[in-house]
Amino acid sequence: MASTTSLTERKYIVPFIFVTSLFMLWGIAITLGEALNRNFQNVLKIKPSESALVQFSIFGAYAVMAIPAGLFMKRFGYKYGAVFGLLLYAVGAFMFIPSANAGSFLFFRISLFVLACGLATLETVAHPFIASMGHQDTSDQRINFAQSFNGLGTVIGPLLGGLIILEGTAQEQSLESVKILYTVIGSVIFVLAISFAFVKVPALTDHHDAVDDKVAAKSHGSLWQHKHFIWAAIAQFFNVAAQGGTWAFFINYGAQTQGLPDEQASYYFGLSAALMMVGRFLGTFLMRFIPPNKLLAIAAFMNIVMCIIVAQNFGWPSFIALILINFFFSIMFPTIFSLGLKNLGPHTKQASSYIVMGVVGGAIFPFLMGLIADHDIAAAYYLPIICYVVIMLFGWRLYKPR
């Protein structure tokens, strides 16, 4: 198969499948945070602004771990970087057992932090890993394809959260279901880590080293000379800020404005995540005909419109707009990531660490939205508009390598 016309080369098929599965695994972990958010409100009797510290623990780990993960990847390679990330993921999941036994919100946040350090490592490794399994011209399509399975994970997460965590909470008002679920997750992730250690990965040629002539002279200078990378990191900060805030209060919005039971609101969140998965597959296809940056700008504009509708609290029309946010959000993370890595040559791995570090936006924004949500859940959705304006500008003008 020619690398210029296909997602990857035949020799990379097995590692490509395995690394693509990693995208699904962190999608499950991230979206389970929303069910945990509501569960802790119900069982531990905390306010929405306090429960937003769940997202702070998850996304804050990215700020701490992204650069160490990049250094580990540079020293030991993509494969063992992925194994290390999976092991951290498993350890964090197993830590839920003593946290549930203690019934401590602080212990849960520490467990989530360790788990999310694993997620940060996986994201730092997986994006350039996938990008290297083919030509740079198709890296946008390759990353969006892999991120489509992240979308599958974000469908599975809310379903597990609604069925096991929230439904169990409604019946028992306990943390037992949380402990059981994360014990199973930790066991599965640990087995995958050991399995991947035995997967043979052919030698990789990082096609990002083949930079355009116009920027070749700069590719071996400072990473910070590449303004499109800097703007990508900023756009990713605001992108995940909007994602973290929107997801953190989705179940609250459904319960408070539509009168839905928590577990039913979680299933609607699963529907929203399914639309995100559809959006990524569709986006991967459309990028064959429409430049990725233009699709990104259009999607950001549409989410500005959706947020305005959500904030008006029109009933079901606003709730449907909330569901649709994930559809337009779908291509944002992988497309920003891929555009930010263009023409960076030997700086690609280091740049990946910094762009992943931008995920810390998801640690800050939910708390700010939570302060408003304590009084008016609908009005809180005005805040993500700021984020989508920044993303729209990046896709429209600021993405260009210079």
From TrEMBL:
InterPro entries hit by this protein: Glc/Gal_transptr_bac, MFS, MFS_dom, MFS_trans_sf, MFS_TsgA-like
GO BP, sorted A to Z: D-glucose transmembrane transport
Primary site of residence: membrane
Domain of life from the UniProt record: Bacteria
Keywords in alphabetical order: Cell inner membrane, Cell membrane, Membrane, Sugar transport, Transmembrane, Transmembrane helix, Transport
UniProt topology in membrane: Multi-pass membrane protein
Entry's localization field: Cell inner membrane
Ranges for domain Major facilitator superfamily (MFS) profile: 13-402
GO MF entries: D-glucose transmembrane transporter activity; galactose transmembrane transporter activity
Entry keyword annotation includes Transmembrane: yes
Transmembrane segments: 12-32, 52-73, 80-100, 106-129, 149-168, 180-199, 229-253, 265-283, 295-314, 320-341, 353-373, 379-399
Pfam families recorded: MFS_1
Cellular component GO terms, alphabetical: plasma membrane
KW Cell membrane (keyword) present: yes
Family per record: Belongs to the major facilitator superfamily. FHS transporter (TC 2.A.1.7) family.
PANTHER family xrefs: L-FUCOSE-PROTON SYMPORTER, PROTEIN TSGA
Function noted in UniProt: Intake of glucose and galactose.
Classification via NCBIfam families: gluP
Name of the molecule in the record: MFS transporter
The organism of origin for this protein: Pseudochryseolinea flava
